[in-house]
Amino acid sequence: MSEKRKKIYHALVDGATEGLSDKALYEFVIHRCPKASSKKIVRAALLALTDPDVTDRHVLTTIYALAIKHRMDEIGEGDLEQDEAEGEDREPVPLRKRAKREEDASPAPPAAP
Asked: pTM of the predicted model, to two decimals?
């Protein structure tokens, strides 16, 4: 694990352990790691979620919520509108019926004695 990600990870866990959440937790992490981007915070949060040493359910839930929020922020509204528009232009794919396979004409293997 890189030193930067480890520092962000510790800031996330420390802030969540202190009871911070959402915007307060994000600001806490940014204060401790000024060069942390949203992408780096999400990656550090995923690392915290997979760490077997972090067992407090409240801390895990808080970190998970922050990761999801910032991951969804990376997906702009324009991207979502574009995906919806692409779905409207498509025509439904017609269903194809499978052809029945013919029984194999080869003789059956001999029975064991």
From this structure: 0.62
